[in-house]
Design a protein that fits this description.
Layout: E1 4-15, E2 18-30, E3 35-39, H1 46-54, E4 61-66, E5 69-70, E6 81-85, H2 96-106, H3 111-125, H4 140-153, E7 158-162, H5 170-187, E8 190-195, H6 198-204, E9 207-212, E10 215-220, H7 222-227, H8 232-237, E11 244-251, E12 258-261, E13 267-269, H9 272-277, E14 285-290, E15 295-299, E16 308-319, E17 324-330, E18 333-339, E19 350-355, E20 361-363
Parallel strand pairs: 3-8, 3-9, 6-7, 7-8
Antiparallel strand pairs: 1-2, 1-4, 4-5, 9-10, 11-12, 11-14, 12-13, 14-20, 15-19, 16-17, 16-19, 17-18
Helix pairs in contact: 2-3, 2-4, 3-4
The structure holds adenosine-5'-triphosphate.
């Protein structure tokens, strides 16, 4: 296994005679044995980045190393990477065994070694019984296992996955996701995994690269991304339902440093660590970021475990069994809370809302960047 290093990797395409940048100058070091997930909305450049690492798209500028070896201009077959595609890309006329053996046969690996490697990979994936079958005799999940097996038998320096689970139904996706996590641990393999699904990114990645519009937004381990998103894009992309961003300003006029929403419906005294950080922001506009689980809701007149920051009207109640989502309106802003399953408030009722002060986020509305990192 090997590390992967991208330095200033850029991809440009010609569109109507003009050069357009699909991927802007990516710097990324994937450590030996690490599983890094590239995630972002459709068109953000994640697949193009992966395809440049695979050698399926030429790199327009910058350099790529696998281990210590510079491979920027090396053809795909000589990069020692194995890619697993969303479409499985199995040969329909070959059995699972032959699909898995094919790349080794091309390389003139001795038959006995091929057989040992195919059987070892099949055992890892629990697909020994499928080896004599052709793709049309297998389910989608089984075909995807064979596609992963075909990568494993090659013992590549790096595994590349391009949305490998997207064609599977929801239950199978979860099962295969866990399987891939297990295989990653078992093989100690270096893996780069592309998905648009933030849950897949959070659960699989040692680190996550969030991309948008061809640019890397943040590279961090899952919980660091969730707890300290660097900008409003990351803040609202990771987490479901997403973080709400409430418009307002910093008010320092009454001694304590406060956030006040633009319509005056929410006022929150900032905890000391934030007050110190935004000391210079008095009178300036900010976005207050709150995740649904950090909103406290109480029926009016009842006790609340966080000081009330304002009132809101309940507009929608969505019970999920283990919890309930409340969509509320505070002034002219919408806000979602994740609360215990049985709520006594009804649609249309007014409630008091508060926020866990240690878990709020503040962003500059002009730059969309997180304010004053400590
Ligand atoms: P998706 O999840 O929809 O595949 P993505 O995040 O993987 O999206 P890419 O496929 O990497 O995005 O595409 C990034 C951008 O590059 C898009 O704007 C796309 O239109 C453009 N692009 C990709 N391939 C080409 C190409 N061969 N020629 C021109 N433009 C391209």
């Amino acid at each position: 296994m090997a590390s992967v290093t991208l330095e200033g990797v850029r991809k440009t395409f010609q569109h109507d005679g003009r050069e357009q940048v699909a991927v802007h100058d990516v710097d990324l070091h994937v450590a030996d044995g690490e599983l890094v997930v590239l995630v972002g909305p459709s068109g953000c450049g994640k697949s193009t980045t992966l395809r440049m690492i695979a050698g399926l798209e030429p790199i327009s500028r910058g350099s790529l190393k696998i281990g210590d070896r510079l491979v920027t201009d090396v053809p795909p077959k000589d990069r020692d990477v194995a890619m697993v595609f969303q479409s499985y890309a199995l040969y329909p006329h070959m059995t699972a065994y032959d699909n898995m053996a094919f790349a080794l046969t091309l390389r003139n690996v001795p038959k006995r070694e091929i057989d040992a490697r195919v059987r070892e990979a099949a055992a890892i994936l629990g697909i020994e019984a499928l080896l004599p079958r052709k793709p049309r005799q297998m389910s989608g999940g089984q075909r995807q296992r064979v596609a992963v097996g075909r990568a494993i038998v090659r013992k590549p320096q790096v595994f590349l996955f391009d949305e490998p689970l997207s064609n599977l139904d929801a239950q199978l996706r979860v099962a295969m996701r866990r399987e891939l996590s297990r295989i990653h641990q078992q093989l100690g393999a270096t893996m780069i995994y592309v998905t648009h699904d933030q849950v897949e990114a959070m659960t699989l990645g040692d680190r996550i690269v969030v991309m948008n519009e061809g640019r890397v937004q943040q590279i961090d381990p899952p919980l660091a991304l969730y707890e300290r998103p660097r900008n409003t894009f990351v803040a609202t992309f990771i987490g479901s339902p997403p973080m709400d961003l409430l418009r307002g300003e910093i008010d320092a006029s009454e001694g304590a440093m406060c956030y006040r929403s633009t319509d005056g419906a929410i006022t929150l005294t900032l905890p000391r660590q934030w007050a110190e950080r935004v000391a210079a922001w008095g009178g300036r506009e900010v976005l207050l970021g709150v995740r649904p689980e950090d909103v406290r809701v109480s029926v009016l007149g009842g006790a609340t475990d966080a000081p009330a920051a304002g009132r809101a009207r309940v507009e929608l109640i969505e019970p999920l069994g283990d919890e309930t989502l409340l969509t509320m309106r505070a002034g002219n802003q919408e806000l979602t809370a994740r609360v215990p399953p049985h709520v006594s408030a009804g649609v249309g009722s007014e409630v008091a809302i508060g926020f866990d002060p240690d878990r709020i986020h503040l962003f500059d509305p002009a730059t969309e960047q997180r304010l004053s990192e400590a």
